[in-house]
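Regression test case RT-17, inverse folding.

Input:
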């Protein structure tokens, strides 16, 4: 949804833009092409490797951007340090990047067998390994229900507890196999791997994703100039609900005008090209 995202931000030459989830810099390249000369981009990512990659990918635009390795929930500090007074646009493209998924050492993907980790920011103290091997059965069950919206949460938590009583659960493949056993025949014929929802739940907890989103969004809105735009691309209903409710709340307070009455979603062609886009929703609002 690159084109929709870029056009929704109403950018012009000279705009100051925050990309709060710069990833590999794909969106930021297009942003920079639109705002230069005269514009400035502040790119944030919790993942130090994303920042390294973006340094490479944006080298043609050197001098026009700053990159900050931090969680976007700290946007107040970040922008104050950058000496920025206000901004024309903020983009949040949530979740994990294809680089993180494809990197076999990060533990994000069911398809790559790797040590359970899932930390976007490797400075975080708790990884997926700690949650899977140390949290009590009841806590696991609640996490998987709440953040994975997984109806077999109780069975999955029980199977995890049984498996780790024999030996620690070390890898993504081991965890996926335990989950498959737990949900058993009930999930045959499903298009999506039965462990997808549990992996999502654990990742959300490891990275404190929903509170980060809520905090970051609330703060980002107040950095926008009048007429400035914020666009959020979310990938599951829990994220989308937060964005929708916050936009609604600030619209009732006359702080924001909602631009997308209904979220924009990818076309069928885009989903065929990129299956990960299937649950993407883009919501855009403008500062009043
Ligand atoms: C879907 S990718 C972004 C891809 C990017 N738009 C591009 O075009 O390459 C999401 C990125 O956001 C980062 N991220 C997720 N939540 C974050 C947060 N709360 N603070 C900072 N970065 C975050 C992830 O580390 C990941 O690199």
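Golden output:
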């Amino acid at each position: 949804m690159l084109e929709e995202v870029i056009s929704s931000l109403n950018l012009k030459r000279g705009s100051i833009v925050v990309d709060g989830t710069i990833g590999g810099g794909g969106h930021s390249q297009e942003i920079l092409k639109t705002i230069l000369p005269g514009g400035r981009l502040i790119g944030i990512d919790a993942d130090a490797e994303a920042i390294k990659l973006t340094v490479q990918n944006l080298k043609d635009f050197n001098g026009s951007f700053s990159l900050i390795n931090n969680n976007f929930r700290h946007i107040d500090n970040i922008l104050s340090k950058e000496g920025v007074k206000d901004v024309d646009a903020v983009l949040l493209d949530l979740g994990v990047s294809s680089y993180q998924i494809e990197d076999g050492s990060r533990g994000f993907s069911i398809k790559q067998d790797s040590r359970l980790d899932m930390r976007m920011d490797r400075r975080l103290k708790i990884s997926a390994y700690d949650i899977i091997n140390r949290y009590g059965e009841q806590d696991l069950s609640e996490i998987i229900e709440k953040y994975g919206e997984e109806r077999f949460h109780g069975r999955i938590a029980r199977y995890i507890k049984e498996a780790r009583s024999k030996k620690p659960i070390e890898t993504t493949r081991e965890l996926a196999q335990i989950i498959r056993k737990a949900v058993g025949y009930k999930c045959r014929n499903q298009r999506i791997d039965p462990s997808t929802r549990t992996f999502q739940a654990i990742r959300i907890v490891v990275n404190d994703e929903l509170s980060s989103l809520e905090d970051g969004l609330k703060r980002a809105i107040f950095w926008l100039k009048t007429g400035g735009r914020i666009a959020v691309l979310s990938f599951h209903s829990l994220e989308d609900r937060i964005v929708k409710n916050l936009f609604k709340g600030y619209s009732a307070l006359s702080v924001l005008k909602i631009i997308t009455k209904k979220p924009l979603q990818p076309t069928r062609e885009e989903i065929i090209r990129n299956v990960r886009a299937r649950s993407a929703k883009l919501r855009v609002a403008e500062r009043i």
